[in-house]
Amino acid sequence: MPNYALLVEYDGTLFYGWQKQKKLKTVQGTLDEALAVVLRRNPPSRIYVAGRTDTGVHSLGMVCNFRTLEPIPNLHKLIVSINALSGAGVSIRNAMEVPNDFHSRFSCDAREYVYQIYHGKYENPLLKNRAHWLRFRVNWEKVEKELPTLLGEKDFSSFAKATSIRGKKTVRNILSVNLEKDNLNGNLFRVRIRANGFMHNMVRITVGTLLDIGKGRWESRSIESILEEEDRREAGMTLPPYGLYFVRAYYEKFPEINELYKPVFP
Q1: Catalytic residue, candidates 11, 54, 155, 231
Q2: Residue 54 appears among annotated catalytic residues
Q3: Measured between alpha carbons, how far is 49 from 64 in angstroms, rounded to an integer?
Q4: Which listed residue, of 6, 17, 135, 218, carries a Cα 20 to 30 Å from 75's Cα?
């Protein structure tokens, strides 16, 4: 059975997350419906995905895969057809045939997210539902100073939704984390995090904690001390979902996936 990977971009504010749910509009459900029409004579399998995002969370480059009974002769036509049927809010950016043993979730070595923050006294209407609006003074140098402490393999139970990690492993390996400032808009900041895996709300809680530290909420606490507590109650706020973007999935054994992320021009 041929195996195909799709690169999906979507506006999370228009969906109740990725995972298919009854009577709710989700990204997976929308793609399932479109694929069922486009490939009605060559029925697709279930769609697998690199990371299941929550309601309101966006994607700039989510990788998913599915199988078909027969080869798809024209992937460009497939993309155009799916995009036409899916409607507003979701778009296939690229597609390719992949090896039979490729699995978008289980083959994935690392995932990268960005959390976007607009720091200003007054609201920016162009960033509504695109970035978290922060109206308080923040010591960004203090925030950046805390970032190296997050790196490496550690127990991140303080930075995950408590009810979602009971009886589960809470050790993750953060491979890189940095603070970026938009060159075109001096009030726009991004925290970029890449790890071998994330727990529920992990990025939103981690960035929320960094902002609480930067705002001076705590004088004697740090990322290090909060990690040591292994208690969600010791960390900061959970930021809203609309500032979060799934950016990229990494596949060391499948370097051809890098081609999915290259721009496609006419």
Answers
A1: 54
A2: yes
A3: 4
A4: 17
